[in-house]
């Protein structure tokens, strides 16, 4: 194995591990949100004691769920696409469409990184706290944007490298299906 191939394999493993860890945190966030919402419903209708902070916390968690799960979705090749059109493309044209999609994901990731970081640091500088029942420093929540953007950028770069090498998406969907060639 050449040095370049060995480096690419190591990078893919590291990106995969980071994406897997982030996806696990995202899934835990979904379960925690579900539990909080169920608890709030029971408290509201069974005991007439609605916890007022649950809506705020679940809203904050939703940002983390999306930002931490996006990279793994891209690695699996499961981002939103117009399959009706791409399924009719030749394999070569589909690879070009996949490359454009990866470049688009990279562009969005860079926007999340740059603007998310600037926004978070501005909120930190001003000492802004989240409005509502849960008053936490807003920049902690906003740091999820550049973090998710970084993970997404790494996944997009990996997707481009895999396309250039003629390889399929890095991870297969959990349902066992594969994208048609």
Brief digest:
The chain has one domain (3-165). 75% of the residues lie in helices and 0% in strands. It has helices at 3-47, 54-76, 83-86, 91-126, 138-142, 144-165.
How would you describe this structure to a colleague?
The protein has one domain (3-165). The protein has helices at 3-47, 54-76, 83-86, 91-126, 138-142, 144-165. The protein is built from 6 helices and no strands. The model has no long low-confidence stretch (mean pLDDT 87). The protein is elongated. With 181 residues, the chain is mostly helical. Helix 1 (3-47) packs antiparallel against helix 2 and helix 4 (91-126) packs antiparallel against helix 6.
Salient structural properties:
181 residues, mainly alpha, 0% strand
Give me the secondary-structure category.
mainly alpha
Low-confidence stretches: none
Q: Note the gap between the termini.
A: 27 Å
Tell me roughly what share of residues is in helical segments. Answer: over 70%
Average pLDDT over all residues:
87
Main beta sheet:
none
Strand content: under 5%
Global morphology: elongated
- Could you tell me the number of beta strands? 0
How are the elements arranged and paired?
Blueprint: H1 3-47, H2 54-76, H3 83-86, H4 91-126, H5 138-142, H6 144-165
Helix pairs in contact: 1-2, 1-6, 2-6, 4-6
């Amino acid at each position: 194995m050449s040095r370049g191939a060995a480096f690419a394999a190591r990078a893919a493993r590291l990106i995969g591990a980071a994406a897997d860890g982030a996806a696990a945190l995202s899934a835990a966030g979904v379960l925690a949100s579900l539990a909080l919402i169920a608890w709030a419903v029971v408290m509201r209708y069974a005991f007439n004691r609605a916890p007022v902070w649950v809506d705020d916390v679940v809203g904050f968690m939703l940002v983390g769920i999306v930002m931490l799960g996006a990279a793994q979705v891209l690695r699996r090749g499961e981002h939103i696409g117009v399959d009706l059109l791409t399924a009719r493309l030749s394999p070569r044209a589909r690879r070009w469409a996949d490359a454009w999609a990866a470049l688009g994901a990279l562009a969005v990731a860079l926007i999340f990184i740059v603007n998310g970081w600037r926004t978070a640091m501005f909120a930190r500088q001003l000492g802004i706290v989240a409005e509502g029942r849960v008053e936490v420093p807003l920049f902690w929540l906003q740091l999820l944007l550049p973090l998710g953007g970084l993970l997404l950028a790494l996944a997009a770069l990996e997707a481009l490298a895999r396309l250039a090498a003629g390889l399929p998406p890095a991870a297969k969907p959990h349902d066992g299906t594969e994208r048609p060639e």
